[in-house]
Amino acid sequence: MREYDFYIVPTPIGNLGDITLRAVEVLKSVDLIACEDSRVTQKLLNHYDIRTKCVSYHKYNEKERVDEIVKFLSEGHKMALVSDAGTPLICDPGSVIVKELRSRGFKITSLAGANALVTFLSQISRVDEKFTFTGFLPKTENKIKEIIKNYEEEDLVFYESPNRIVQTLEIVQSVRGDVKVAVGRELTKLFEEVLVDNIGNILNNFRSNTPKGEFVVMVFRSEENLDELFIENRVNLLKNKGYSDKDISVILSELYGINKNKIYKICLGK
What is the strand order of the sheet 132-136 is part of? Predict the structure, then answer.
């Protein structure tokens, strides 16, 4: 197996069993693990009897750690970077050190593994593969509104915290009306929940049941911007399979969030 100087290692976003065999192997074999919070990482290491030492590396000390890490690797040591959960550099620290190490010619690789964005999207039906991911949204209402308006024609995906989720969805509603959204929380954990519904229904649910956990949200693109030819192709495909116009309207509405009456008119050739 080819050896590298620096390994970017994804860690489980919830279920500890989601770590890969290669990730465990790498974390055991390197000389040092850089992590956001050693208390969080240590739980994972203890679970898999990984005894490699850790050093803190988070967004507040990234620049200060660069020289230490460069010196450590220059002495012939191997190192891994992990975040508290998921994949480093995807809404997590790591960009600063990776840029520096690449500029100095160190050999870097990233392992495949857990990521909340991919885990979420892999269970959400979409029109096509195109989407925009913005990470965590800004804190101000006006900036959030600007993003929601700018990406109305695209499926927009973002992360959100439990203490802001209701407020953020209300802002989305104020811009897009009762738009269709998908919301995932506690992914891979015991109380995982993924909801796909109009935003008004989801807000009512969250207002009566205080939401917990970290969230991934997708705001569906405006149905007016769906390619009508795409819809017609789906209609014809289902007609050839023997489905009725009524069934086709229900199926495509559920899959793509399109108004059933609009689909029915396409079925009738209007």
Answer: 132-136, 156-160, 215-219, 180-185, 193-198
- The answer, yes or no, to whether residue 109 has pLDDT greater than 80, is yes
Domain that holds residue 214: 117-223
CB-neighbour burial class of residue 145 (10 A; exposed 0-12, middle 13-18, buried 19+): middle
Query: Contact 172/179 with Cβ under 8 angstroms?
Result: yes
Decide: 156 and 134 in contact? Cβ < 8 Å.
Answer: yes
* Confidence at 270, pLDDT banded by 50, 70, 90: low
Instruction: Give the C-alpha separation, 175 to 179, whole Å.
Output: 9
Buried/exposed code over 135-144 (b: 16+ C-beta within 10 A; e: otherwise)? eebeeeeeeb
Whether this model's pTM surpasses 0.90: no
Q: What is the DSSP letter of 129?
A: S
Q: What is the count of structural domains for the chain? A: 3
The residue out of 66, 82, 114 marking a domain boundary is: 114
- Say if 1 falls within a structural domain: no
Angle at 47 between CA 46 and CA 49, to 5 degrees: 55
For 4, counting Cβ atoms within 10 Å of its Cβ (0-12 exposed, 13-18 middle, 19+ buried), the class is middle
